[in-house]
Amino acid sequence: MSNSSQSLALAPANLAVAISNPGALGTIEAYISAVNRLPMLSAEQEADLGRRLRDQDDLDAARQLVMSHLRLVVSVSRQYLGYGLAHADLIQEGNIGLMKAVRRFDPSRGVRLVSFAVHWIRAEIHEYVVRNWRLVKVATTKAQRKLFFNLRRMRPDGQTLAPGQVDDIARELKVRPEDVSEMEVRLSGGDCALESPQGDEDAFTPISWLSAEGQEPTQVLARRDRDALQGVGLEQAIESLDPRSQRIVRARWLRDEGGATLHELAEEYGISAERVRQIEAAAFKKLRAALAEQHEALAA
How far, in Å, CA of 36 to CA of 72, rounded? Predict the structure, then answer.
């Protein structure tokens, strides 16, 4: 076994764990320092390990190929630090891409693993960035992802693009100007906190109106029906009564300046106060029945 292979075979066991969790060594700096101390493989060593993995499914060969290229993932991941995502997370996703590349590596094609793996590493990091940069995805198709990463790089200081700049970028990237403008709008948007920061009770945030019970659809419909019954619906129900019943209901309950008493209406119609009360009770019963029919009609 060569010196490089011996060094890889003797690498700390916890570094192997750190491939899937760069924070396992304590700090990201400790992880980077550890992977940078691992030796690189020569072309002959790499080809031999690749053949062992391909022909014998040798997992130790796969481990050595992965370990010797961890520094490549660290290098590629640094290019994506401007997206506000944790470096350890970027490295972790890149390591997944590296392992996928090692599994597909074929030394008989005469291509070094580093040239092959870099595309897989970037693909995994790209997917992670697009998936986690915003709550709402800004790019879903392959073309949109390509435009997303290129446009972030080409926008001067993140400023709004002038029409001429949009056309120049569209020509360079071989896309439509409308696609550039749409992606610029997506990049310019930001996430909005649903709730106010802790301790800031005066701040007005979306949760303030999202939780308003009065705007819940069933509440809105109930208010609409109630308003309809109390307005036009009530008037129609009253008009279905006989004239004397209408007069008693209106005089008792619908006058602005105080309702008439039972004795006043009894004197007006030449009947007893008890008889006025009975007519009023019968009128209310008919009104409730008429309003119930209207409510059923509205619900239907």
Answer: 9
User: Does residue 84 form part of some domain?
Assistant: yes
Residues 6+ apart with CB under 8 A from 5: 41, 45, 49, 64
Question: Which stretch of DSSP H or E encloses residue 180?
Answer: helix 177-188
Non-local CB neighbours of 195 within 8 Å, separated by 6+ positions = 205, 207
Digit-coded pLDDT (tens) for 199-256? 555 665 655 655 555 556 666 666 665 665 566 777 888 888 999 999 998 888 877 6
Nearest to 65 by CA among 109, 100, 89: 100
Residue 140 lies in a domain: no
Statement: residue 13 has pLDDT above 60: no
Average pLDDT over residues 6-35: 63
- Domain holding 270, by residue range, is 214-299
Each residue of 241-275: pLDDT tens digit? 999 999 998 888 877 677 888 999 999 999 999 99
Helix axes 28-36, 70-77, angle to 10 degrees: 130
CATH of the domain at 48: 1.20.120.1810
| Domains held by the chain: number | 2
Q: Is the pTM of this model over 0.85?
A: no
Q: Which residues does 284 contact at the CB level (< 8 Å), separation at least 6?
A: 249
CATH number at residue 223: 1.10.10.10
Instruction: Name the residue with tokens 């916890």.
Output: 14
Alpha helices in 1-86 (DSSP H): 3-9, 13-18, 28-36, 43-56, 59-67, 70-77
Structure tokens at 185: 């709008």
- Given a contact cutoff of 8 angstroms between Cβ atoms, the answer to whether 22 and 31 are in contact is yes
39 and 4 Cβ atoms separated by less than 8 Å: yes
Q: Is 149 within a domain?
A: no
Contacts of 279 (CB under 8 A, 6+ apart): 244, 245, 248
234 neighbors 240 (Cβ within 8 angstroms) = no
